[in-house]
Specification:
InterPro entries: HTH_MarR-typ, WH-like_DNA-bd_sf, WH_DNA-bd_sf. Helix content is 69%, strand content 3%.
């Protein structure tokens, strides 16, 4: 059995048996698609991102790129907008506007780098940290809910396989050639 058929044989009946039924097109897009991995990956990403970033905008008045800057600084302080752009694939000008707004709101500060005067390492302020601390439990809980059908071993396997796919992209280029 080829890999995509094996996945369909395992996954399709589970999807059909869930309480939340998929419409015929979504079912076809997820299970009959020649780019099934990308379709499923995008489906999950949208189901995660849309409600969470909608909540961020409603609760805090921040657009997605603005929150991405805060989130990024929560992972590692002192990075630049260019580094965040490179890591997230948001355009530099979009992140530049986000950084300007977050600075005006007092959620982040821009520093200076002695070795590169053009670089401006970013830091969370106390207000930025408080906002992030309020938001993160919702992001974590949403991810936990998405992963709930998986056992701990399956979660570890999924994480390992996703890491392998991501790392493979660094060796193979971006696939657009």
């Amino acid at each position: 059995m080829e890999p995509s058929a094996a996945i369909d044989a395992i996954a399709e009946p589970e999807v059909a048996g869930t309480q939340q039924r998929l419409d015929a097109f979504t079912h076809a897009r997820l299970w009959k698609n020649p780019c099934g991995f990308a379709a499923r990956f995008n489906y999950l990403a949208l189901r995660y991102n849309q409600p969470l970033y909608g909540w961020v905008e409603e609760r805090f008045g921040l657009a997605r790129p603005e929150f991405v800057v805060l989130y990024s600084l929560g992972i590692m302080e002192g990075v630049t907008a260019s580094e965040i752009a490179s890591s997230t694939a948001f355009p530099k000008n979009t992140l530049s506007r986000a950084v300007s707004r977050l600075t005006k709101l007092g959620l982040i500060t821009r520093g200076t780098d002695a070795s590169d005067r053009r670089a401006q390492p970013l830091q969370l302020t106390a207000a930025g940290r408080a906002l992030l601390d309020e938001a993160m439990p919702r992001f974590i809980a949403f991810e936990e809910a998405m992963l709930q059908p998986l056992s701990l071993i399956e979660r570890e396997q999924l994480s390992t396989l996703m890491a392998k796919v991501v790392l493979g992209m660094f060796h193979a280029g971006d696939g657009t050639e």
